[in-house]
Amino acid sequence: MSTTVADATTLARQAAEAVREFNHLTFPNSPQQPGLTCPGEAYDAVAALKTLAQRLPQAIEQIGTALDVLSALGHLGSADGNDPARHVAATQEFLSTAMESAGGLSQCLELAHSAVSPLTYNGPDNGPDEEPCGEGMCQCHCIGDLHPCGCDCPHPDDCDCQLCNARDLY
Question: What pLDDT is attached to residue 6?
Answer without folding.
Answer: 67
